[in-house]
Amino acid sequence: MNRRKHYFLLLLCIALLVAAFWPSNMIAKEKKKNAFDIPSHVLNISKDNTFPNSTEDEEVIEPSELTKELMDGLDIKIENPVLIKMLNETSLNPSPVAFGYRGMVYLGRWPLNYESLETTINWEYQQVNKNELNNTGASEPQEINYVQQEQKEIKGALTNKITNPSDVKKMMLLKAKEKTKLPLSYKTVIGKNTKKDNTYKVPDDKYGVLQSYAPAVNEKGQVTFGEVYVKLKGSKKSIAVKNVTKQGIGAWIPIQDHVSISYQLK
Length: 266
Known about the structure:
Shape: elongated
Pfam families: YfkD (PF14167)
Largest sheet: 6 strands, antiparallel
Organism: Virgibacillus pantothenticus
Number of strands: 10
Strand content: 35-45%
InterPro entries: YfkD
Protein name: YfkD-like protein
């Protein structure tokens, strides 16, 4: 009887331990899953912005059949859309009877791919506006809302120098968009008099300050560079990559048409 009792108590302890740790594990997983969700204090102004931002849709270039054939067997990924586009436009037709023909065509040193290692969001990347309401000495509360005082241009950039920065920026933007599912662009503008109807109460005898910020994604990773050659051997053709190097890189990429609100009473 005592053995049964001890066994029951042991099972009960195990069940309590599982119940104690299960919710925290679930919360941690949920936080990780929703790392790029837009918080409630960040307002979408895409329909209210008095400056019409153009969407920076970077074209995803698919390799042609010839490009796929050239890259077949290559152990290094080529994801640079500019290089893929150039290869797609390349016309190579070696003679099928060109026995013994060999050749190497040097295409230059290129950034081949970008590997994303860390993606975070700074919801207060750059202050863009301040609205204030002085309600001291008043007998009743008032309301304040976001109204953009001046037009603001927010620019992103690479955080360190690198060769072929334009190609690198394209690859980083594509990877960051894929990871976050957010409207990212290296430049976004908030027009003057852009406003939202969201109101914030300022009690009597208080001073309300509504500060607004442009959010941005901080993208960090590694770029692989290599010298690219088109290799011709008889009727066969392929790509060869030599002198491969890697370089760490970071970038700030603004989130288009969004403002982060910080409200304080003084």
